[in-house]
Amino acid sequence: MDYILLIIAFRFLQTNEQTKQHYPQWKGIFLKGFIAAWCFLVIQISFSSTEPILRWLAHSINLYLIYAAYNRDVFSPLKPYVYAFFPIIVINVLEDFTELVAPGFYDTWEKLFGTAAIFAWIWLVAQFIINRKQRKALEIERIKAAQQELQYKQSQKLKDELEIQVAERTAEITAQKEALELTLHELKAAQSQLIQSEKMASLGELTAGIAHEIQNPLNFVTNFSELNKELLEELKAELEKGDLEEIKLIVNDIEGNEAKITHHGKRADAIVKGMLQHSRSSSGIKEPTDINELADEYLRLSYHGLRAKDKSFNATMLTEYDESVGVINVVSQEIGRVILNLVNNAFYAVSEKKKQVEGLGNPELSEKYKPTVWLKTAKKENGIEIRVKDNGTGMPDSVKEKIFQPFFTTKPTGLGTGLGLSLSYDIVKVHGGELKVESRVGGTETADESWTEFVISIPEK
Question: Domain with 385 in it: what CATH number?
Fold first, then answer.
């Protein structure tokens, strides 16, 4: 029995992976011990006379293995087996020792030693089964741990790759952001230049109209100044005569003329100031403004400006101003630009329609078509409304959907920037209002059926 235990012990040590890994120098010893245990077993079977000596030799080796399992690191893997074999080894040693020193006592209690040996074997088998299950569980845990370690390494590798990709992507997005910011800055600068160009273009259109409008008050100033000169000569003559009644009448006439000179001088001054305001950037400050006066002024300026560029152009202007509109707080310079843009477009539309009708070669139809632009103001419950209507070419739905988009224009290249209506829409929105359009497209041969109407709604605040 002792040899069998030795064979199992040395065989286990020989095949144990932990022992091989940490103590490779012991592998030869384990193999020799395994072979020696088999040799002891063969010698005992072959030569029965050597059995006592070999038995005690085996007891010594087994006891040493018990000692080494708990005191030598190299034999530590034997602990589970030593724990299982310990009862059998102790019983065998006690049994042989008792038989050697007290044969009589041994003969009396021999059956007790046999019973104890049976229970020791039962203990051995149970420990082997338990140890086997534990080793399987440990092996499963080891495999799980190895898999988790592998997964951890793979996840770390993936994490490192993702971090590299994120860093690269972040650098790419940062570069794109910087490029977009630069592009946005350039676009804003270009937009500012285009807006200023649009303002200067509208200023150019106003110039001829302003020249015409300013000529009227200047003519009045000149005429009344000449009248006053003549009246002053008459006054001198009457002073010599001493006719006080006539002198009073002449003085009254001079005062009346001076009042008219002052009025028309202020009118000319207002026109010049309006032109200067139109050419400057808006201050954005709202001020009380007479909407009817503002609308009428820009209507006439637009018409005379177009007439100055095209002497053949002619159109009827019909106005309907609601006196209850009165004065409201708006940025007059900006609202004036809106009215000017809408009226300019209206005159352009009727001019184009006139050309289309005349192009048909039908004198009767040409005579029938009367280019007309309507300008109307009205007081509403929540504010005011300004309507600009024309009987020009009209707009299809596809055009109406786009007219407030920046840079969209139906005019030929060089005649429009496509910013007028877009800026007008933004200006009205800034005032908290709304700019809408309604239109109808009729046939060219039925000249009066096409029309377009823009409606400006501004809340009164």
Answer: 3.30.565.10
